[in-house]
What does this fold into?
Amino acid sequence: MHFDKHLSLAIGISSAGSGIGGVILPIAFTQLLTKVSFGWATRVLAFVFLCISVAPLAAMRYPRSFVAISATQATAQRVDAADAERSRRLRSVKSMFYILIDQVALREWPYLLMNLGLLAGYMGLYIVLYYVGLFALGQTSVPAKLSSDILIILNASSTVGRIALSALADTVGPAHVPSFTALISAVLVFCLLVVADGSALVGWPVVFGLVAGGFMGLPAAGVVSVSSVKTRIGTRLGMTLGIVGCGVLVAEPIAGAILDNEGGWTGLIGWCAALLIASALSIGAARLSKTGAKLKALV
It folds into this structure.
């Protein structure tokens, strides 16, 4: 709404807060547990979240052009009885479905393929986030303290990747970057099959975080880039995040079942890499579905 030329960079910078939080909050929570109870440690972090949320709530504004358009529409609604009737209908169950689901999006192949790619990609990435510490503890020679810090290293590295690769996406297209980063992430996941010592496992999350940050920072920009209707981007982003959330919800139980049965770590790594490869192919297909064979198109 506020950005056009540097939309991907703006979204990447905003998502960098997730990486920063992934570094600070685990350390803070661990330190709090040594001084207060679990309940009070949770309350302290909740209060921190509350304080942090006040600043954006107080500062965020609609663009002036959007406010002017909204004011004009509001004036028209006040003098038009038909619009008043429409406002009452918006509160109905049918209108609520219209608000939550963009039916036009369900008929757009670029949007559907982008969602499929983001679903598979986030499932694969969150398997790494959940299991990389356990993998380090059980399959390598790293100390227990270092194995718990691997996720912090990964989050710190992803903060840089979210910003740097989002800036690149404004040049090459927000659909290109997630596709390539998902593919590179799959290769890095396969590399875990040969990681055995501490030095390699410390370097691995640095590289993986840089690459994965480019994927995690750009789902919104990718949805915008393949959408033909820009007026309902908020609804489409909500649909996308709902789909992705369901995928992340089931990804870890499936991964745990693979690990506990005959698949072991090899099966889990193969499953994770397969999801990331499927993500790269699906997002690439979304781009081709949107632009055809125009490789230089900025999508």
